[in-house]
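Methods — Computational structure assignment.
A single polypeptide chain was analysed. Its primary sequence is given first, followed by the predicted tertiary structure written as structure tokens.
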Amino acid sequence: MSATEPALPGGLLDAAFRDGRRQRLRPGTVLFSEGDVSNRVVLLLSGRVKVSSFSEEVQETVLGFRGAGDVLGELSAIDGGEHSTTVSVVESGEAMVVPADRFLAALETMPGLALVLLRSIVGRLRDADRKRAEFTALDVVGRVAHRLVDLADDYGEPGEDGIRISLPISQRELAGWSVRRARP
């Protein structure tokens, strides 16, 4: 590993991904597609990805963004089911990739890894519950305002004129993350 390459996080994730394959991430690359069967698990070392779902009319709903230290594809690896979302790269970076069966073996031999993973999943579930409650209680302007506050908290960089959100997100993606879609 060169001095410019990101290091693996310490501890249990390091052990689970130690023998993984390093992958460069380029914007626009799709890591997982909704409906595909899992065969790998990804640990983001740097960069950012967008997690989305698509309707039958191919309308994108942004569910969230993930960054360094986040594990992707673990749910499908655990239950053997299809990916429930599409994950695409929005900011260049690097990741470590391991086969799903190797990740499952690590879960079986390292109970602490399962607890780390469970805490991450619980955090995402709580976030999804909070957003679902917002969709019910707030109008479009309120939901967009909440998303902008979330973006400022997670990706904001203070400047002379206010806070600049460093995440490359389009207006369409912001709308897809904020607007409740009517279901037929």
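Note: The CA atoms of residues 9 and 69 lie 7 Å apart.
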